[in-house]
Amino acid sequence: MSAIILEGDIVHYEVLGRGRPVIFLHGWVGSWRYWIPSMQATSTAYRAYALDLWGFGDTAKSPNRYSLESQTDLLDSFLSEMGIGKVALVGHGLGAVVALLYAQKLSFVVDRVMVVGLPVKQEDLSERLQSESPTELATWLLAQDPAMEAARAEAPKADTEAIKTSLENLQALDLAGLTNTTTTATLLVHGQNDPAVKPSLGEVNGSLPSNAHRIVFEESAHFPMLDQPSKFNRLLADFLALESGESPRQLQLKEEWKRRVR
C-alpha cells in the first residue's frame, strides 16, 4: 500500500506503469480498487494513479474535509506533492464531480477529463444515495459478479458522512453550466441503465460545447468500467491517444472502439 501525508493525515494511493500521468478518481460506492482493470490496461502506455478521497478506502476519515471543495483541494495537493504536472483525469460519480471542478479551476493543469456517471442535474440523483449505508448501496448497485467484488469489499470502508456531505454540496452546483463552460477536452460517459445517476440525455446533448462529447453505454448500469470493461478501456485508450486539446467528438461507438478517419 502506498500513502502520503497531506494536511497531517494519510492519503492512500496506488500507481502502475510509466509515461504521461492519468489520475483515476472513484465514486460514492467503493474506492480506488475497482479501477484496477482500467489502470492495468492504461499502464502499458501511461503512469496510472488512483487515490482514495477523504473518507473513503484507506484515506483518513476527517469529517471537516468532506466538502467538494476539500476533495478538490486533496487532488491539487496530491498532484503537487507527487510532482505531477499536466495530467488526464478520469472520474466516476463523486470523482467525476471533483475532476470537473478541478478542470474548471485549473484548466492549465488538466489536459483532458473523462467523467463517468456525472449527475448533470440534481434530479438525476437517486435519493437512495443519501439515505442508505455504503454496504446497502453496494448491494443495490453492484451485480453478483466476480468483477464487482473489489468495489463491494471496499464499500463498507466509506464514512457515510463523506457521501452525505458531497451530495448536499451538489445542490449548490450548476453542473450542466460547469460542463458547458469548461474549456478542457471533456468526454462524458453514462450507463444507460444507471439507477443511481440517471443520464440527462435529450436537452444536454445538443448544448454541449465543441470540446465535449457524450457517449452512452447501452448495456451498462452505474459501473460501465466493470459492466463492459473491454469497451470502456478501448474508449479510454482512444480518448487518451487524442492530441492535446483535440475534441473527443471524433470518437464513435461501434462493435469496438475505432478512431474516425478524417
Class by alpha and beta content: alpha/beta
Q: State the order of secondary-structure elements, H for helix, E for strand.
A: EEEHEHEHEHHHHHEHEHHEE
* Overall pLDDT score: 92
With helices defined by DSSP (H or I, 4 residues minimum), what is the helix count? 11
Distance between the termini: 44 Å
Which residues sit in consecutive blocks of at least 5 with pLDDT less than 50? Answer: 255-262
Extended strand count: 10
Domain count? 1
The CATH topology name reads Rossmann fold
| Helical content band | 25-40%
Strand content: 15-25%
CATH architecture: 3-Layer(aba) Sandwich
Which features does this protein show?
single chain; Rossmann fold; globular; 262 residues
Please explain how this structure is put together.
Helix content is 35%, strand content 21%. It is built from eleven helices and ten strands. It has an eight-stranded mixed beta sheet, with helices on both faces. Helix 1 (36-42) packs across helix 11.
Topology at a glance:
Elements: E1 2-6, E2 9-16, E3 20-25, H1 36-42, E4 46-51, H2 68-82, E5 87-92, H3 94-105, E6 110-116, H4 128-131, H5 134-141, H6 149-154, H7 160-170, H8 175-181, E7 185-191, H9 202-205, E8 212-217, H10 224-227, H11 229-241, E9 251-252, E10 258-259
Parallel strand pairs: 3-4, 3-5, 5-6, 6-7, 7-8
Antiparallel strand pairs: 1-2, 2-4, 9-10
